[in-house]
Amino acid sequence: MDISKHFIVSCILSILLFPSYGFLSFLVFFLGFLIDIDHYLWYALKFKNFNPKNSYIFHKERKQLIEIDRLHIFHVFEFWLLILILGLIFYIPTLIIGLAIHLIMDFSDMPITSKNLRSTSLILWLYKNI
Questions:
Q1: Separation in Å, CA 15 to CA 20, 27, 40, 61, 104
Q2: What are the percentages of helix, strand and coil residues in the chain, rounded to 5?
Q3: What angle in degrees, to the nearest 10, is found between the helix axes of 93-109 and 77-89?
Q4: Nearest-5° Cα angle at 111, 105 to 112
Q5: Cα–Cα distance between 72 and 91 in angstroms, integer?
Q6: pLDDT at 71
Q7: What is the reported pTM?
Q8: How many CA atoms lie within 13 A of 19 on its CB side?
Q9: Quick check: 35 and 106 in contact, CB under 8 A?
Q10: Mean pLDDT of 1-23
Q11: What integer best gives the mean pLDDT of the chain?
């Protein structure tokens, strides 16, 4: 998913939810857009290249991603479960809304036949790679 789409949708949704949730609506923006910082972190650690523009270009060209088993720490089931639990315990629905919108946009952008090797479980990734 193009980062600009995440930005626009998250901004609009945060603004729409602001009258109901006040400043908690910014969690929608945080989890809808800034959660993708893990793409940059993975790229920087994997390639020892800390230039955000290079990371963006790398992820934009999906051809290079097919053969690489990637761990984007905020895109794993365990993180999703943590956000769900925190959102329910502290009754902060904007946590759940922001993450849900982000994931819906991500998964809707992936073809069903995708050979995308981004891990969706930290435990399984650790099992395969350690």
A1: 10, 11, 26, 31, 19
A2: 75, 0, 25
A3: 150
A4: 110
A5: 26
A6: 87
A7: 0.86
A8: 2
A9: no
A10: 93
A11: 88
